[in-house]
Input
Amino acid sequence: MERHSGDSGWIEVITGSMFSGKSEELIRRLRRAQIARRKVQIFKPMIDERYSEEHIVSHSEMKIESQIVKSANEILAAAAMDTEVIGIDEGQFFDQDLIRVANQLADQGKRVIIAGLDMDYLGRPFEPMPMLLAIAEDITKTRAICVRCGSPATYTQRLIASRERVVVGAAEAYEARCRSCFDPHLSEKTGD
Ligand code: ADP
Ligand code: ZN
Output
């Protein structure tokens, strides 16, 4: 995004299904900020322990150092005054406070980049991402490839039986599917 007049910051949101390249795109933007010698701080929520404790790691093995936080307010407390760019991954696992926190950081003049799932395994908007889309200056919707038919995929198909909204997993538990191939009831049919 081009910088506009004044010292104000802004909010960028990268959203889409699993495997759509959200983490890759987040890491790419943060790397470029580091190359430009901006002071960058990167956060991810406690819940995501899939790949690495101290890194954001994409499904394609791209990674970047990050700090784990338990809540959105912890990001606000941990953000240094002179930090220019804040990266946040797995935005859907944060509480509703993330909306106020993102606004406050942007008001302080920081560029805030948040990646996260737009929908849960049933295709329902995954809070707080819809609210973040509303307040963001810039939105990127990423799409995966449907593993069934090769079309662009916007849904995250859960492959295992569970009605919990949050089940942490990768390729063994989820796959990307297009609207025609997506079956929200599959996770019930497989029986539990
Ligand atoms: P996200 O953060 O959206 O889950 P990642 O950035 O972690 O996505 O991973 C994206 C990478 O996942 C792609 O570049 C590709 O290498 C890999 N990948 C695996 N399955 C798929 C798929 N069905 N569609 C697109 N990319 C996939
Ligand atoms: Zn399909």
